[in-house]
Input
Amino acid sequence: MTSAINSSSTASTDTSRISISAHYTGYVWYKHGLSAPGFATGMGRIANAALTPINAFLRLVAGADIDIFLLQRHSVIDHQVEALIQEQGVEQVLELASGLSPRGYRLKQKYPKLNYIEGDLPGMAARKKALLDEIGSQPNHSVLPCNILEKSGDQSIKALLSQLDPNKKTVIVTEGLVNYFDLETIKTVWAQMAEGLKQFPEGYYVTDLYPDFVHHPSYKYVQFAQKLVGFFTRGQWPLHYRSDEAIKAGFQQDGFKEVAVHDPAEFYGKLNLPEVKTQTLVRIIRTSI
Output
């Protein structure tokens, strides 16, 4: 996850504020053996240290901490993307707002022929490109500047999709991005993705989403986490939809025909992800156009 866009507008659309989260998640992936040392930054280490007592408190009172939910979503997103590559023949990946995510780095090692493009704000994109060059980037793995709210121009989603082969199956991936936007704003982005994916033989979108599960037994701690994220990122962190059915209907309204909503608990015992006794809080969405 990353800074996503650079805007001077309202908090719901100014995601330059998310940059500290990109550093924190980058450090979490490194700490748990999912990426190379270069993905861990000084700011990430500081954020990790600052959140250590908070994570301990959450494990005590809610049975899970921030890192656990981050690892659950990351593992299930990886699983969905790899399934699309292995089972559906996807050959191209566009990861938007990729920040310090190691996903492209890992997938290119496993699938060298994969065409992988990462998009982020110019500053983060330049940093990521330099990092990949330093640790040994592979052919057909590029990082380009992108502003996900731009509807046209060189940094738009449309422009990045134009860099891909229109004759090959393609998936767009986002992680840790959706809940930094109010629903109205992110739905416009989803609609752009759905429209852009129509140019490919098959188009898919995989993302995470934190729903507004008001009846969740740990909901009061979710509200605490909302305030915590808002404090660190100087903005809001809205939750979207109150049921899996509402999530599915919402994505269909935005132009996606098939929508699967996955609870990480479905993969307990099947994937290498942390398991908790409490109900999960995140959902992984896999769509196709």
The radius of gyration is 18 Å.
